Each structure stands twice: as C-alpha cells, then as structure tokens.
C-alpha cells in the first residue's frame, strides 16, 4: 500500500493528508490513488507485453467514470456485465472495439444495445442465451461476435461466494457440452463464434486453479480446431487476488508465464478481465469515529462508515486492515475492539476483537484495500447517503462522485395520488 503512507504523523493518500479530504468532503468517503491504479494496470500490461493480449478491466470492481477513463488512457478496455456498465465504459471513452460483455443473464434489450454499439465480443453462457442472441442479431441484420464461456469445473480455492468455475455454479456452459454448443453457434444465423472464455472466480491467491482451468480450455480449443472450427480468441477472465491480510497473491509475471506455457502453439489472441487486481489496494474508505462504547465484554468503536458503504465484511466475512489516520505513537499498547457501523444489523461489523491503538470520538479511521467491490456494492440502506468518491493525483484531489443530498434521495420515491397529500 505504497500509496497510503504516514507522513508527519498522519496518513496520506499520495501527497494529500486524509484529514484534508475528510474536512472538505466529509465522512465516510472513498479515496482512490490514481497512481496506484495506474501502477497495477501497467504491471499487468507489462507482464503480457510479449504476448498477443488485450486487457479489459472488469468494471464491476469499481465503475466510477473517472476510474474507467484513467484506465482507458492506458489503453485498457472494459469487461461489462450489464447495459449500465456498458454505457459507463462508452461514456468514459472506452472504444466499443475494446469492450467485452459478460454475464449469465443478459436481456434481449441489453443484447440489442450491445449489438447496436458493435462491441468487440459478447460472452455467451448458455444455449438459450445463444438462441436469443441469434434471434436479436438476425432481426437487427447484425452478426454477434461471441465467445462461449465454459465452466471447467475447477475449484478456485477462494471464498464460496466468489467461486464461479465449479459445476454447481451458475456460470458458463459445462465444458463437456462446449463443442456441441460451439457447432450450434457456428450454424445459427447472426452469430460468429470467435473463441472461448473462462473465469473461475475472484481473489485467487494461487496459480494452480488457473493452470488447471486454462489447460482444460486449451484442450477444448484443440478439439474444436480438429473439427475444423475457427477459434481465434481466448478470454481467460480475471480473478488474480490482492493482499488484504498478508496474502501473497500471484505476480502477474508468473501468471503471464503460466498462460504462455499453457497456450503455446495455440495461435490465439488472448483477453484478460482483471478487476480487483487493478483497483483493490488502490482505494480506502475513510470514516470518523462517533463513539467508543464500553460494553459488558467488548469495547465497540462505532464509526460513521457502515455495511451499506462497504458490504464485504458482512457478505464475505472479508478481512480489511483498519488503521487510525493519526499515526499511533511507537510502542503504544493496543486494545482489542469491535469496529462497527451505525446500521441496525449485527452484521454491520468491520472487525471483531481487533487490536487497535487508543482512539476517541472524532478520530478518523482508514479501512484499507477498499478500492474493489466497495463503492460499487454500496446502497442507501437505512436511508444513508451513498459515500462520495475522491480520486487523488499527487497533491491534488478531485471529487469524482459527490455525496447526494437527502432531497435527491427522497425524491426518488413517489407517493401515489390515491394516498393523498399527507
Ligand atoms: C467479476 C468478473 C471479473 C473480475 O474479477 P476480479 O476477481 O475482480 O478480477 C472478470 N470476469 C468476469 C466474467 C467477472 O464476472
């Protein structure tokens, strides 16, 4: 986390003291390091510099237009899972030719929108989806360039809720049926099969599941070729993990070497869809402590960020490092505390019995590694306003999504006339 460091006794984002951001924008607030995001993207790009590879950032990890634009300027494309995300990618300046549309449940309207923009590839995950896409494309007089997303039945050895490549997961076409469906795709009107896609899960911390899955896919490519099918694209998905708690995730250089070994001789163009790897460690959530409450057996640090702002701890039992913004004195004794939010749910807990230096009401905390699946999964549960997002560049910071007002939030609801004026 070189982008968030203590300087002069205070945590900074690049060259900006976090207390300045908190004072100007309020808390809770998401804060991203543009340098951190660029560094990760560049590492990934460099690792594949000697292979025919394109990178499509998985927008769902952090879909702020400014973040997508930052990556687009480095030549990174987009992997989207809805019409909304596709619109975001286009609005941020990603060329349609660099956009992949993934997802298990695309609607006819979404297909029509994607075909109308002539995006690079639609990843198809089932036979009924393939038939619907064929119908939509034919009606529009278009040809959909597709990849078949296969399910290789490989255990990604990650949290069950972010595992996607086992046969009991809803994702992809079982690999044993892939040849048959590929043939069907080649025969259907309005469909041009160009390759195979695979994505076995998120926050992978070892390479072996990738190895196994990619070998199965490579074998499938050889089988399809033997049948005379054209396979020019291999989309190997995302999933490289990050360090939340000292994990040592795969280095992209080793990952790239593995890919090179497994795809040797296949003569295909490669695509990748990293999300978390690019943005995860480059973002934090800054909160302010409201109260320190001594319970019967626990000490609770109640701060103003909650599960609606960052749901990963409650949804995935995720562990996030949490540090005070004011640098603790060296050698200070630590108290075990529960760090919780104000939402009316026991699950609204960021950390349990976590050693923390002494803090008091009014102090700022930084919840680290919150750049991926943080703001994008936030909600206004408990009628709390969505946390604003800030992007830092050296000594400058910009609000890239302001905090909405209560008026804006309430105006989304409509009271029917027949309920009267109150
Ligand atoms: C979520 C997702 C990704 C990104 O996963 P990360 O673990 O964030 O890299 C890539 N591809 C598909 C199809 C996804 O659903």
Please bin the fraction of helical residues.
Answer: 25-40%
Largest sheet: 9 strands, mixed
Which CATH top level class of the domain at 34-277 fits?
A: Alpha Beta
Shape: globular
Query: Hey, roughly how much beta strand do the residues contain?
Result: 15-25%
Which small compounds were modeled alongside the protein? pyridoxal-5'-phosphate
Termini separation comes to 52 Å
| Count of alpha/pi helices | 12
What are the low-pLDDT stretches, counting only 5+ consecutive residues below 50?
Answer: none
Compute the CA-based radius of gyration: 23 Å
Count of extended strands: 21
* CATH architecture type of the domain at 34-277: Alpha-Beta Barrel
CATH superfamily grouping of the domain at 34-277: Alanine racemase
Determine the CATH topology of the domain at 34-277: TIM Barrel
Mean pLDDT, to the nearest integer, reads 97
